């Protein structure tokens, strides 16, 4: 639905210009963006420079409460549009960032407080989408029927499905072949899988765990399945609200070492996940194996010895997961069993009914123990696995990690003049996570998908999503 300045190649995730005609900079701090003329929103209006600037200022403005606000943190003036207190009773000084300026209808500029070498790569993420003028006139109407500038437009949405159709006036280069796409909402991944097998649903990326065993899904879906290495990572977060875990790095490392990642990868996922050795996915440039060290290597005896030396854990350790994700129950129980057997403590996998409830518990600071966490990259960069998850104040920083050393390395890496220099600094930042251990990496999931006999040219992107431009109906 939403085209951005940049588009990511479905195979490689390499960024290419989309709405942007050009993004130019001589110092990685001042950027000039020129737009292609004639690009239309789905309400018929033209996409202009102000639609980006207005959208980004709205998203960054603290009182608007937008989860994507953090992505504008590098922009000059971001701090001035933030709330002065957690409850936002103290309004920001201004409503607009000084780092954004409209030059003319098809040109705007971006200025960052420090050099940001990979900013053009980031600009294909959804937080950097433009908004039409109609959004600002009636946000509630936009909520009921969002309007973008992409190849598909929204026709209807309900609690059970969302229907999109091809946007006739789409003027971009990524035109789809399919006229209509219906997204169905399933509470049970087994039901979705059964519908794909029966050709009642055309695509799923949620293969039930029992179908992974012995690759049973390949028998159900011969020539209708694929496994794609993707920019994804799964880990456990040590709750910052748990007084036993909060300030005990040695205890967190001991618990991590008690998890038999390889056994779980083989038994639960049938090898479709690879045990993680760090906090960055292997698919991105700059990945370096081994950042987690021994703490991600299962050793029951060493884990027990370190656990006892760290003071142990009193009571029952809970691992919370959302029950609406394929395999979450099975692997959460397996993680708890591994911890229980190695450390001799009680560990219980605890379900929330769905992801919305799970996130609310995190936002309400009511989660204790450990809980499952996962990431699908927003843009193809090592930085995306570090800054949005572990920088102070980041929306996805569920561990509430706050390290001045880590923050300094991120700033230095963003300002680096060459990709190799930047990657080296980001690797040092990841190494700092290995010392402080706010989370425990588990594995790098591949995306396992199945599709019906009704479609051809099914491609899974490097992000682990279906490429709706490539897919065709028979």
Automatic annotation (TrEMBL):
Q: Which InterPro entries did the record assign?
A: Peptide/Ni-bd (IPR030678), SBP_5 (IPR039424), SBP_5_dom (IPR000914)
Pfam family name, one = SBP_bac_5
What region holds the Solute-binding protein family domain? 15-396
SUPFAM superfamilies cross-referenced by the UniProt entry: Periplasmic binding protein-like II (SSF53850)
User: Highest taxon of the source?
Assistant: Bacteria
According to UniProt, the name of this protein is Oligopeptide transport system substrate-binding protein
Taxonomic placement:
Bacteria, Bacillati, Actinomycetota, Actinomycetes, Propionibacteriales
